[in-house]
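Technical annex B. To support the medicinal chemistry partners, we prepared a structural model of the target in complex with fe (ii) ion, based solely on the information shown next.
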Amino acid sequence: MKKHFLIICFLSIYLIINAQTEAKHQIYKQIPIVYSNIIPDDSGNIVFNNAKLSNLNPFYILGNIRINPKGSEKGIVFDFQNTDFKGTIYYGLLSKEPPKYPQTVFFNSNSPIRKGKAEINIAELKGRYDIAGWEETGKAKLGYRITNYYGKIIYDGKINIEGTGPFKTGLSIIEGPFVNRVSEHSVHISFITNEPCSPYVEVNGKEYRSPNKMMNMKGELIHEIKIDHLSPATKYKYTVHFGDNKESHAFLTSPLTGTRKPFVFAFTSDSRAGQGGGERDIYGTNAYVMKKMAALALKKEVAFFQFTGDMIDGYSSSISETNLQYANWKRNVEPFWHYIPFNIGMGNHEALVNIFDDGTKYGVQVDKWPFTTSSAERIFADNFVNPTNGPVSEDDSDYDPKPNQQDFPSYDENVFYYTYDNVAMVVLNSNYWYAPSTSSIRETGGNPHGYIMDNQLKWLKETIENFDKNSNIDHVFVTIHTPAFPNGGHAGDDMWYNGSNSVRPTVAGQPVEKGIIQRRDEFLNIVINKSDKVVALLCGDEHNYSRLKLTKKTEIYPENYFWKKIKISRPFWQITNGSAGAPYYGQQQLPWSESVEKFSTQYALMLFYVDGNKITLKVINPDTLEDIEEVIIKE
Ligand SMILES: [Fe+2]
């Protein structure tokens, strides 16, 4: 009897240990093999040096905030399902004959959010306040702004209303429509609806539909519709039909490459939230400054807007919080994006991370996994519609620990190029597979801020070579969030790290061969020495404007630099403009400071006037409309 009991005990213990080992093995398998020292503990927690993966659960996430309000007798009711949530909803109608750039016209009253609920009284918006004409048609578009108890703006939304009392919410475009991937013969129109529908876009009497619909986690539908067979350099009106609603705007297709007609494009970056309250921080983004950037760019009739990194505060471990911040950025410039493309590159603040809580302020952070569903790269690609002509990933590089298996995040839509007439824009990502905790990278694995990994560099080299051979392309711009030469704010990182070449990625426990300054030099060698067409590096990260003319005389190395040095074969521009609203940095002294021809801490919109071979740069403060400088950068 005793013997049997012992056997059962041993068997039970064996089965428990076996089950635990199997569970651990399953968790272990989910951790990308490019990381190291990140393991499951005996309780099934994923840990790094005993620090557990933190599991924050913020309330301000898109899933909780962009809710579908319900109709009521007097108007519409928001129920945020959180009795602790207090605040205010401001609201107003959009005009029935909307201006070119539709805006909410705020009403003279507001609705308190009490115990997570608020009701907007539409019936009050009648008579002289009924600019939407709902009393006659039973239809209106309402704009609303959610603020919390402290007056911080959390989200600006829009929703269609139906009825004259009782009211209900109708099928609505709650984000967009946006014009993307503008080329000579096609564009992509994207938008999100609050309910399932089968919309189409009408251009020149032809209906375009999308076979693919993507439903996000909230059950909203993301639509992306390609409009093709268009003529180059032609203005088209487009109408989005959804249910029995429609909305019209216009776009202009690109001219054929090499047409060499004059055009303008805009550049800025770094619009994450600033101090000062109000619209300088619409949950994660400086909407005040960025909206002025967009409005001025449209006034100057730019063909496209290039924005390279740090749209939002980011650094969240929550996908839905990141989505809320992206939604705020997009919604803010949406009226302008109805007409021209905003082409977006990634920066460090687009980071979406797994955080190991080791008791320090930020913990130890690495790019979130699974990479295919949850990485910063994937969520960025889900939020924007960029070209898909970049490299695949860092798989199959020399340091890939397991060929034939995807171990790295994708470059899809975060590294790419596009052309417009005689200009090519190459958009890079120096925050790919980004691990923000630089000092822990040797232990965790990951890529430090500013480092261009091997496959991306190889793709850049091939892409530049192809443009060199293309006689229709005269000018190539390379845009990357981190400057090769920081000038104010980022001397301690970017591609300099106070002159330390030791910084580099670690893959599966192995630091890679080349350090950050060696990699910077390989990068410069491609864009300066191997090609005459690359006009400038367009960078951000530093929250100021600086124009640096790099020449062979510019000092670019730290003292006692032991590795091979490059010679700069021709004068070359690095223009940094991270002045779209993030908190400012002043100028710092660095070896190349004498080559800095202009430095400003004003908000700055860069406008490139391309006229055949000549390129003039005009820089304007979009807040005050003060001219910062005008300089011919190529003639
Ligand atoms: Fe940055």
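Notes passed to the chemistry partners:
The CA atoms of residues 75 and 367 lie 43 Å apart.
DSSP finds ten helices and 36 strands in the chain.
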